[in-house]
Structures are given as C-alpha cells and as structure tokens.
Design brief:
Number of strands: 0
Structural class: mainly alpha
Number of domains: 1
Radius of gyration: 15 Å
Distance between the termini: 46 Å
Order of helices and strands: HHH
Length: 74
C-alpha cells in the first residue's frame, strides 16, 4: 500500500494544485474561521472529544481566528 501524504503535504497539495485554483485557498481559510467560531461557542459540558481537552481546542480556535484576521486585514 502506498504511503499517504502527511496532513501538511495533503493541505499543501490542495492549496497549490486544486481544480478550483486559488479559490480553494479562500475556501480553506474561511473553513478555519467558521470552525474556529463554532468551537469558541461551545461550552465545556458539551465537549465530547475525549482525545483533546476543551481548553486546548479553544486555544486552537483562538489561533485560527487570529490567523483569519491577519489574512483579511486591510
């Protein structure tokens, strides 16, 4: 079985060689924003991902939103 690309390699390929062209880059950036906002709205008691702590996921969401704001500042 051939080796699958790493997550970084797969995302890079999608960002650089998508059939949608450069639009895919904005799609992925918007997806980061949307999911980060969803995570920020979550409450600890509703958190069901046992592998990753609620606080760690919240910090990732903060970073995702910072990334989005930096990319879209004018």
């Amino acid at each position: 079985m051939p080796n699958k690309p790493t997550n970084v390699e797969a995302m890079k390929r999608l960002m650089e060689f998508s059939r949608s062209g450069g639009l895919m880059q904005m799609f992925i950036i918007q997806a980061v924003k949307s999911y980060s906002e969803e995570v920020k709205k979550a409450k600890p008691e509703d958190w069901s991902n046992g592998m990753i702590s609620f606080d760690a996921w919240q910090r990732c969401a903060d970073e995702g939103l910072e990334f989005y704001e930096e990319r879209t500042e004018r």
